[in-house]
Amino acid sequence: MFFHIRVFLNSLIFLVALEFVSADIISAGWAELSDKKFLASLLLFMILLGVFFQLSRRVTKYWRMTLIPMFFVASSFGLLYFIQPHWEQHFFIVVCAVVYYLLHLALYRLQSCRKDKTANGFINASNMATIFLVYAVAYGVYLNFAIPLWFLMVFVMGVTTLVSLQNFSLFSENKDAVLNYSLILGFIMAQLAWVFNFWPFGYLTTSVIGLAFYFVFWDITRCYFLERLSKRRIVANMIFLGLIMAMVLSSTRWLPVV
C-alpha cells in the first residue's frame, strides 16, 4: 500500500506551509529582514515545528520515531532561505513534500511490520536527505553569519547522533550499541566539520562531501548491525568515497560561494 489519506493530508499541509514561507521570503529576503521580521519568522518557525511534530507523532505513535521527520522539516524550512530563484524554490518544495510523504508512509508501515524492506528503504533514503539538508543549512548559516566553529561542530554532532539513533534502531534492538555507534558517528562528523572549515568551498559542495563521508560510515555500521560486514564491503565503500570526492572536487569552484 503506497497511499494513506492521513499521510497524504499531512504532506499537503507541509507543502502549503513551505509555499507560504517561500512567498514570505520572496517578499522580504535576508537583506531586508529586520529584527522584528526575524523574530516573527522565528515564532512562525517554532509554531510550524510544533504542528508538524504533532502530525508526525500521530503517524508514528512514538516520539522517538519523530527525530528524522522533525530534522527534515526544520532543515527544509531553513534551506529555503538560501535558494534564490523562484522556480528552484518551488521545485525544492515539491521534492521535499514527496520525501516527507514517503518517510511518513514508511514509518506508518513499520507499525504493522518492522521488517518491511520497502519501508526501511524509504527511511534510509529519507535519512540521507535529512543529513544533506541539515548539513547544507548548518554550513550555509556558518558561512553567512558570524557563527563560532565550535557551535557548528556541536550542532553537527548532535543532529548526526540523533538521526543515526533512530535509523540504527531499525537494524538492532541492542540500545546500548545503537547509542554508542550513533555517538561515534556523530563525533566523526563533528571532526570532519572542523576539517571542512579550511576547505575553499561553498555550503552545497561541503554538504555533499559531508554526506558522502556520512554514507560510508553509516553503511559500514549498518552492515555491522545486520552481520553483513566484510572486507569487500569496506573496500567498496572506500572506492565509492574516492570516486565521489574526485567528481565533486573536479567539478566545483574552489572559492566560497555563499
How does the SSE layout of this entry go?
Layout: H1 5-27, H2 35-60, H3 67-80, H4 86-110, H5 117-144, H6 149-168, H7 175-196, H8 203-225, H9 231-251
Characterize the overall form: globular
Low-confidence segments: 27-31
Note the main sheet: none
Helix percent band: over 70%
Count of β-strands: 0
Distance between the termini: 42 Å
Estimate nothing, just give the exact number of structural domains: 2
- How big a fraction of the residues is strand? under 5%
**What's the helix count?**
9
Q: What order do the helices and strands follow?
A: HHHHHHHHH
> What structural class do helix, strand and pairing data support?
mainly alpha
Whole-angstrom Rg = 18 Å
Q: What is the residue-mean pLDDT, rounded to a whole number?
A: 86
Task: Describe this structure as you would to a colleague.
- With 258 residues, the protein is an all-alpha fold.
- It folds into two domains: 1-112, no CATH class; 146-258, no CATH class.
- 78% of the residues lie in helices and 0% in strands.
- The protein has nine helices and no strands.
- α3 (67-80) packs across α5, α5 packs antiparallel against α8 and α6 runs antiparallel to α7 (175-196).
- The radius of gyration is 18 Å and the shape is globular.
- The chain starts with a helix and ends in a 7-residue tail after the last helix.
